[in-house]
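Regression test case RT-17, inverse folding.

Input:
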């Protein structure tokens, strides 16, 4: 698997650049006039009745991404048709079950890119930030985790009770699993597709983001936080319920704590061995 970022030379087709004695990928995707990448990037967008918000979401997506995978949660509005109008070639995946976790798992299975980016469909995420996530991954990270509370991040859409709950839950995960997160319950993340073998997602609700954050640490994967700004939902109302979903997140933390000593994947063991760590 290649993870190359290199300058795009003006006037030279990066697809035909000479290798100078070493193999290079057969295709690069221009990110700007000065930067190109080789890994294909898939963006997964779980959506249910988000037809009004999708124009804002798709408007910010960079045109160099490989594919958009829209997971439709049995929408009763024009979500699917709007997505197809906005992004010809969008991959539409009908959701099999219910919940954000179930939708994301379905979307991940449909991705063909080497890098997967998770983006919400409510207009709260800025697709222009994707380049920061991808840069972190091609620079050596396994998992690029968005954070609203890292230096440079922010949020327009959190009540005080949600901020307090997120802070407490983040502290618990850091203490129990040895993480160094500044944000826990945020859905803007990116990772190499191969990481799915290490984290084996198996939950259906909003707590899927917490489960991912815990399991990448347990698997010994390299995590890099990316400062991100969360905007207000543009249209509609969120299905998030602070108390209910906070309790579900806590339940996941306690369960994963109890399963902490389960056998880790062969890749995680090999990674730790290469770093001189005890498995």
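Golden output:
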């Amino acid at each position: 698997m290649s993870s190359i970022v290199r300058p795009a030379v003006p006037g030279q087709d990066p697809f035909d650049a000479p290798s100078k004695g070493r193999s290079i990928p057969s295709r690069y995707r221009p990110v700007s006039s000065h930067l190109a990448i080789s890994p294909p990037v898939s963006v997964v967008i779980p959506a249910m009745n988000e037809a009004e918000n999708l124009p804002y979401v798709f408007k910010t997506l960079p045109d160099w991404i490989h594919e958009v995978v829209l997971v439709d949660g049995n929408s009763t509005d024009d979500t699917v048709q709007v997505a197809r109008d906005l992004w010809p070639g969008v991959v539409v995946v009908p959701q099999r079950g219910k919940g954000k976790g179930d939708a994301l798992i379905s979307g991940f299975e449909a991705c063909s890119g080497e890098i997967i980016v998770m983006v919400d469909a409510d207009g709260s995420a800025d697709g222009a930030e994707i380049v920061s996530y991808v840069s972190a991954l091609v620079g050596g990270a396994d998992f690029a985790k968005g954070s609203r509370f890292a230096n440079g991040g922010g949020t327009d859409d959190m009540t005080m009770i949600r901020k307090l709950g997120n802070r407490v839950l983040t502290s618990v995960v850091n203490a129990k699993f040895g993480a160094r997160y500044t944000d826990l319950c945020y859905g803007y993340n990116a990772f190499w597709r191969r990481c799915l073998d290490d984290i084996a997602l198996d939950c259906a609700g909003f707590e899927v983001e917490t489960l991912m954050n815990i399991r990448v640490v347990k698997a010994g994967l390299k995590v890099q936080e990316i400062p991100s700004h969360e905007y207000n939902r543009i249209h509609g109302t969120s299905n998030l319920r602070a108390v209910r979903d906070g309790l579900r997140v806590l339940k996941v933390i306690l369960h994963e704590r109890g399963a902490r000593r389960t056998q880790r994947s062969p890749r995680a063991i090999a990674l730790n061995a290469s770093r001189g760590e005890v498995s």
